[in-house]
Amino acid sequence: MPRRPSPSRRRAPRQERSQATCDAILTATARVLVKDGYEAASTNRIAQEAGVSVGSLYQYFPSKEGLVTALLEQHRARAVADFEAGLVPLAGQPLAVAMRALIRQVIAVKRENPRLNQVLHELMPRMRERGLLDVYSQRLFRVVRAFLAPRFQDLRPQNLDMAVFILVTTVEALCHTAVTERPDYLEDESFVEEIATLALGYLRPEPAAVPVRRTARERTVRM
């Protein structure tokens, strides 16, 4: 099935000044969404916030939906690029050490602008309905898969693709829910520890302990 073109832009900026204008418009879009919400946002309001004319805005973005799509793409591209860069020094680390570092990195992204993260997350289903393909989620899955592949023989799951899907989705969901419901957890190192324990227990659980058999006398004493 051919990929539908992104509805985010009418034309790409070719000069430094044009790029600066696009960046200012997207920054203004983020501010308006955080302050007013999606329904109250409008291209007029965003153009005013960016300090440009509506005509200038429409040169680069065809609609409000196009603006939000472009903002989503920019936001997720940066997050995935930072995540991918963070994996490089962890390649040779033990899985437990690497897992904790990666979870801290996910939390750091969420903490950077919690309200914007929440708004964009809520808008994802609406954007998908309009043809946005979340290529960055697929890229994230590929990055995590490449990280786990050399360790696969030591992991419990037999299907690596499924394991990556479960792991990434679980960590992302927990961190996002903490942003919206328990932001205090994002400052708590024990939250990292609990998620890491959950993830490591799924990937490589400890062998079940062999029950110790007690004599009748020992059982009587304990009773």
Automatic annotation (TrEMBL):
Keyword tags: DNA-binding
A molecular function (GO) term: transcription cis-regulatory region binding
Record SUPFAM superfamilies: Homeodomain-like (SSF46689)
InterPro entries: DNA-bd_HTH_TetR-type_CS (IPR023772), Homeodomain-like_sf (IPR009057), HTH-type_TetR-like_transc_reg (IPR050109), HTH_TetR (IPR001647), TetR_C_15 (IPR041669)
Lineage start: Bacteria, Pseudomonadati, Myxococcota, Myxococcia, Myxococcales
Protein name: TetR/AcrR family transcriptional regulator
Secreted recorded as keyword: no
Pfam entry (one): TetR_N
DNA-binding region in chain numbering: 42-61
Location of the HTH tetR-type domain: 19-79
